[in-house]
Amino acid sequence: MNNLLYRTKGDKVIWTIVIFLSLVSLLSVYSATGSLAYRERGGHTEYYLLKQLSVLVMGLLIIYFAHRVNYTIYSRVAQVGFLISIPLLVYTLAFGSNINQASRWISLPIINLTFQTSDVAKLFIFMYVSRQLSRRQHIIQDFRKGFLPIVIPVGIICLLIMPANMSTALLLGASCMILFFIGRVPVKFLAGMVAAGAVGVVMLFLIAQLTGMEMRTKTWQKRIDSFLHDDHTETPYQVQQANIAIAGGGMMGKGPGNSTQRNFLPHAYSDYIYATIIEEYGLVGAFLILAAYMLLLLRSIRIYRRCPYAFGAFLAVGLSVTLVIQALTNMAVNVHLFPVTGVTLPLVSMGGSSVIFTSLAIGIILSVARNVEEMEGKQAEKERLERVMAARENEAVA
């Protein structure tokens, strides 16, 4: 155990955030799934708690082993991962498991594991973009040679994700734009990227209506209409129940395990787990969750500023940005600031593949942090030895 702790490096604050969010996940998932487990598992109310615990333990192991890998290796992995992501997304659209009219999942035989291919694609596209940005900094102002080779892969991935999961595609595009901005891409290129994205969304709606293709355009339109018009007679059921949960939480909440809306709120353990947290822990608990993600972003920005190499800097800040944007979107949906989406709360919502890929992203961030600390340690040791040698020379001269 001592050897394991000694080998655990990286930003200690980020490690603390991971442990904190994991504990919150266990408490919230157990509270939100107690009744469900009792009905579905014959009174075994701890079933989903134990399942989430096993997933989180696996996630912690992934973080540990990922952070022990030198982050420069991920630069080579990014190319292969990006090329693998494209056929995976195409296969998902054509043959993926259809849940709620959306083909987002594929199942692996033998081990019977179901995962969202968009999670795989998001991770690899950020690694790929970080690699390309670091290699093209000297020509990033050139639209044809610098910008197009980076933005085209992002566009391909977003277009393949969009038919089944528009919210994820839009969040991915927004996160990549922030990374482009940090990577000194000209603002006029980013404006063109926004325009192209808007045209792509409109074209998708038109194609679906003209061809009668089975896409989720009607669902998207209904959610946007209900959000914009705020007609309480047509407010989605999950939004109504989330509002009741939040109103019942008050400042300090009802206490752990005392939520009542968990029995009425759809997906209280995943998409709407933040509303459950507010009901049980109040605005204080809601603020602590928000602060944890903001602190994760700030610590990643600190790693970005300290990292002497562009790839590591872009990798750390890019992966943290996408995690925090996903978290903020989930919170905004829960408090009815955004239309309803299927975005989960990273490391908190119950899940399998989402926790695994989130853990891998955090492990990569910590890998960058570990290497930065080691380089700074070597530099500090070098400076100390130089001071010692200089002092000895001065003593010899005296």
Provide a short characterization of the protein structure.
With 398 residues, the protein is mainly α. The chain has 13 helices and three strands; from the N terminus they run H-H-H-H-E-E-E-H-H-H-H-H-H-H-H-H. Strand 2 and strand 3 form a beta hairpin.
Largest sheet: 3 strands, antiparallel
The share of residues in extended strands comes to: under 5%
Helix-strand pattern: HHHHEEEHHHHHHHHH
Query: What is the CA-CA span between the terminal residues?
Result: 50 Å
Q: Which sequence of strands runs across the widest sheet?
A: 1-2-3
Number of helices: 13
Number of domain modules: 1
Shape: globular
Q: Can you give the mean pLDDT?
A: 84
Spatial extent as radius of gyration: 23 Å
Content-based structural category:
mainly alpha
Low-confidence stretches: none
Approximate helicity band: over 70%
Number of strands: 3
What's the oligomerization state? single chain
Protein name: Probable peptidoglycan glycosyltransferase FtsW
Transmembrane segments: 13-36, 48-67, 73-94, 106-130, 150-182, 189-210, 272-297, 309-328, 348-369
GO molecular function: lipid-linked peptidoglycan transporter activity; peptidoglycan glycosyltransferase activity
Subcellular location: Membrane
What do these coordinates show?
This protein is mainly alpha-helical and 398 residues long. It has one domain (71-352). Helices cover 73% and strands 4% of the residues. The protein is built from 13 helices and 3 strands. It has helices at residues 2-7, 12-40, 47-68, 73-95, 117-135, 143-161, 166-182, 187-211, 217-229, 237-249, 273-306, 310-334, 353-397; strands at residues 97-99, 102-108, 113-116. A 3-stranded antiparallel β-sheet has the order 1-2-3. Belongs to the SEDS family. FtsW subfamily. One of its GO terms (cellular component) is cell division site. Its EC number is 2.4.99.28.
